[in-house]
Amino acid sequence: MKNLASIILAAGKGTRMKSNIPKVLHRVAGSPMLFFPINVLKTLKAGRVVVVIGHGAEEVREAFKGGEVSFCVQVEQLGTGHAVMVALKELKGFEGDVLILSGDVPLITVETITALMELHRKAGRKKAALTLVTTVLENPNGYGRIVRGDLGHIVRIVEDKDCSPLQKKIKEVNAGIYLASLKFLNDNIKRIGKNNAQGEYYLPDLVELAVSEGDKVDALIAAEPIEVMGINNRVELSKADSYMRRRVSESLMLSGVTIVDPDATYIDYGASAGMDTIIYPGARISGDSVIGSGCVIEEGSRIDASKIGDSTVIRSYSVIESSEIGSRAAIGPFAHLRPGSTVGDNAHIGNFVELKKSVIGRGSKANHLSYIGDSIVGENVNIGAGTITCNYDGIKKHQTTIEDGAFIGSDSQLVAPVKIGKGAYVGSGTTVTKDVPAGALVITRAPEKVIEGWVEKKFKGKEKA
Ligand code: UD1
Ligand code: CA
Q1: Can you tell me the distance from the alpha carbon of 39 to that of 61, in angstroms, rounded to the nearest whole number?
Q2: Ligand 1 in contact with 176 (CB < 6 A)?
Q3: DSSP track, 118-177
Q4: Is 56's C-beta closer than 6 angstroms to any atom of ligand 1?
Q5: pTM check: above 0.85
Q6: Would the CB of 426 count as within 6 Å of ligand 1?
Q7: Which domain CATH number covers 434?
Q8: How many angstroms separate the alpha carbon of residue 94 from the centre of ligand 1?
Q9: Closest ligand relative to 198 C-alpha
Q10: Is the CA virtual torsion 255, 256, 262, 267 positive or negative?
């Protein structure tokens, strides 16, 4: 967007969060809340973005490193007016309008910012020196109140703590989103004083300063108050979180995904699912996971940073972390795919099976009670119930290789490093310690002994407890 720069205020401590984590790093639908205003600006191709950091500056910088924003540090948090003053130093040489957003207003939309810009830049009328976003709240507590004059013009903003009893009743509030020319900001920012209840430099004082110079201040009244809600405590955080998740779910539903109960389904911003996938309650899908079409994600499943093909079923209470699953596969119930696992098309990973850093080839099955770690399993392998790959010798991890078509009998241990050749059979209960050639049978079973009449003899004349 032409001649636009942005400042995002994110230096405050967020005292009301009662937290050791900087406020803007608290998560909304899976992302730190500061991500959202940055993302809106990115969508708008808004040009330069300066983020003012201070409290927890290094953590915030770290969380957003590599992004297309620059940071400036407000060493002492002396108020929002002071924060903007610090940021303006970064915009030397720029000419145009500056959009000011708050890092703690994550639900703001591209539409609202676009409308603000249109209002500010509308031709054929007296241009406002400052245009801001307001909204009307049933409960305006905590927000700065918009004071309008007799003709309805905005004359000043009074912070909650500075309000007279009468002003406290005003329901139109400041959303903390402003647009003004860099020149206006440079001319006025230093004129802001701190003679107020909090002894801070209040950015909203720009309104009164503009009006006193005969300048016009305009406001866009946001129709959806929740979009401009500031997050100051954990109650508001949870409201923002469920609202954002609702937005994510609705966009998925409109693109053809069935979400049986959106209020009880937790899909993070950035995760996606294809057409005709059905997601049951209690599923939690996070970390930019990509789920294909026609899948079924049953209740209670947790899918993080993973990729799933088409027509795959993730049965109840399975946990899938940083893994990849092909198409027409079946996982769970109660399966655990730990990071670095790859499951091929048509493969089955069943009840109480744990995979770690393993590759399971197409059509292979491990249906019950197994641990498969650091393994490469070929295609159409059958892994019987209770099979364990013993990948750890107390010092190092070792690899197990099972080639195509092999059959691993139930309750076997494969002591790695070890290889089971193509089509080989491992008899039930075998402890394999040496490589097994293709087509061989390996079995380490003690001979079975049957002693007829043993019970009768043992207990004759005695009473069983
Ligand atoms: C602010 C506005 C209030 C408005 C509300 C909307 C002021 C004085 N008040 O109040 O009119 O209704 O937002 O949500 O601006 N920050 C800094 N440096 C500082 C202080 C704050 O960067 O020195 C940042 C914070 O990290 C936060 C934002 O500015 O992201 C707003 O600060 P906050 O303390 O939350 O202001 P509010 O009391 O909510
Ligand atoms: Ca706030």
Answers
A1: 16
A2: yes
A3: HHHH-SSSPPPSEEEEEEE-SS-TTSPEEEE-TTS-EEEEE-GGG--HHHHT--EEEEEE
A4: no
A5: yes
A6: no
A7: 2.160.10.10
A8: 25
A9: 1
A10: negative
Which atom of ligand 1 is nearest the CA belonging to 229? Answer: 14
- Residue whose entry in the numeric block shows the structure tokens 């009468």: 166
Please give the radius of gyration of the chain, using alpha carbons only, rounded to the nearest integer: 31
Is 259 in contact with 279 (CB distance < 8 Å)? yes
What is the distance between the alpha carbons of residues 82 and 65, in angstroms, rounded to a whole number? 24
* 261 lies in the same domain as 213: no
Whether residue 82 has its Cβ less than 6 Å from ligand 1: yes
- Report how far ligand 1's centroid is from the alpha carbon of 53 (Å): 13
Q: Are residues 328 and 399 in the same domain?
A: yes
- The parent domain of residue 199 ranges over 4-228
CA distance readout (Å), 254 to 270, 275, 305, 371:
16, 10, 23, 39
Protein residues within 5 Å, CB atom, of ion ligand 2: 104, 230, 232
Q: Which residue has the tokens 């049965």?
A: 315
pLDDT per residue as tens digits for the range 351-410: 999 999 999 999 999 999 999 999 999 999 999 999 999 999 999 999 999 999 999 999
Asked if 368 is an active-site residue, the reply is yes
